[in-house]
Amino acid sequence: MDKDAFKKKYARELATATDQLKTLSRKLQFLESVPPSPSFDASRLGGRIAWPAGEPIPTDSSGAPMVFVAQINFKEEHALPDFPKKGLLQLFLENDLNERGITFLREYRKDGYYPLRNGSGFRLVFHSETDGLVETKYQLPQSEYPIYQPEILDRPLTVSFGEHKEQRPPMSHWQGSAVYERFEQLPEAENALVELDEILSAEVWDEQLSTGFYLGGYACPLQLDQRRFFEEYRKYDTCVLNFGELPLLDLPDMNLAVLIPKADLLAKKFDDTVLIADTD
Q1: Do residues 179 and 228 touch, judged by C-beta distance below 8 A?
Q2: N or C: which end of the chain has fewer CB within 10 A?
Q3: Residue of 238, 243, 251, 250 lying closest to 209 (CA atoms)
Q4: What is the CA radius of gyration of the chain?
Q5: C-alpha neighbours within 13 Å on the C-beta side of residue 113
Q6: pLDDT for the residue numbered 71
Q7: For position 97, what pLDDT does the model report?
Q8: Residue 277, CA atoms < 13 Å, CB-side half-sphere
Q9: pLDDT tens-digit map of 66-79
Q10: What confidence score (pLDDT) does residue 166 get?
Q11: φ, ψ for residue 165, nearest 5 deg
């Protein structure tokens, strides 16, 4: 495939795709982790859990505690209009007893996998008020290949709100895939998908995120967005949190994203969420 000839022949289609994706742009805000030890109710990675006194912490199906990964305090200044202005959002992941990674308790279908549901494989918890929370100790689950680094409990990292930007649906997102597949069907694309990726990356997608740590925007799977195959999961249309190789975790070459229906986000209801995850 001659790239210049392709771009000239399909200039209108490339421009249309760009315009379409621009209309779907959403704001995301990057999160940054730094060494200073944070207070127990601040935005942070790892550490002890800020939790209602006397209440049990999230556990997996075997009764083992889930790993407390991160929390976001929305009272800290951020630039995302649809997210709460106060309250504490916490993410817990199930530790895998057999291999490095997440335990994917997913129902199988012939053409793919379901995403994980809140409560199975992960827990996303929102505390609308922080006054009743206390610093709660917990025992990290033990395994031969834990998903966490040993210092996750005793050396938490402060998380701060960083740069915000507009993001188009990535190629790997189900809406981005729909745009990409139109070009994949062109005769010139046969046996030249690498060149097609390069052209579309330069002409339509101006930047591709991979394992970025951010709130909002779109999820950015490395390879597969299961919503491509399961339309019933497309109601989970808003990315709460996208993350990959975070400090204090041991999940190499993996990207994870927690998704929520936009109506639930606006209503501050975080119980019905899913997690999509894949490896490079």
Answers
A1: no
A2: C
A3: 243
A4: 20
A5: 13
A6: 97
A7: 46
A8: 22
A9: 999 999 999 998 99
A10: 92
A11: -155, 170
Q: Cα torsion at 35, 40, 44, 50 (round to 10°)?
A: 150
Distance of CA 35 to the CA centre of its chain: 22
CA 270 – CA 127 distance, rounded (Å): 10
Cα-based torsion angle of the residue sequence 228, 229, 230, 231 in order, rounded to the nearest 10 degrees: 50
* Rounded (10°) angle between helices 193-203 and 174-184: 120
Per-residue confidence (pLDDT) for residue 239, from 0 to 100: 96
In the 8-state DSSP scheme, what is residue 244? S
Ranges in the chain, pLDDT < 50: 97
Four-point Cα dihedral 108, 223, 172, 257, nearest 10: 70
The answer to whether the predicted template modeling score (pTM) of the entire model surpasses 0.85 is yes
| Residue 110: partners with Cβ closer than 8 Å, 6 or more residues away | none
Q: What ranges in the chain are assigned the alpha helix state H?
A: 3-9, 11-23, 174-184, 193-203, 262-266
Which amino acid is it at 99?
E
Local structure of residue 56 (DSSP, 8 states)? P
